[in-house]
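Hallway conversation turned thread

IA: we were arguing at lunch whether anyone had actually written out VOC family protein end to end. Turns out nobody had. So, for the record, here is the sequence (123 residues) and right after it the structure tokens. Reply here if something looks off.
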Amino acid sequence: MTLGAFSVSLSVKDINVSKVFYENLGFKVFAGDLERNYLIMKNGNALIGLFQGMFEDNILTFNPGWDENANTLDAFTDVRDIQKHLKSKEVKFENEAAENSTGPASFVIKDPDGNAILIDQHV
């Protein structure tokens, strides 16, 4: 099972202040829209999403079907197959992908400490 590209999605108070902070650490804007209060920043293979006013807590994010440059992979584990596997392990879901759908879909689970994990497939 391959989860895809990994990033940390941070809930920030002031996206402009956070943007400057992470630029000082060597991150550059990779994607997103400052006007819509979200940016994806990259430093090498490290990805950080900055999100102002979109969710309360920080989230670990995996993108099946993408590499760290948002390139579509030729082969990957579909989000619904990951979900099916986790259900067989009795993992509790916060929300689920429609099992009979195809293409983009997502689900959210929480680890034992309450940290949210978003599996978000865009392809």
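OS: looked through it. The longest strand covers residues 5-12.
IA: good, adding that to the notes. The chain has a mean pLDDT of 97.
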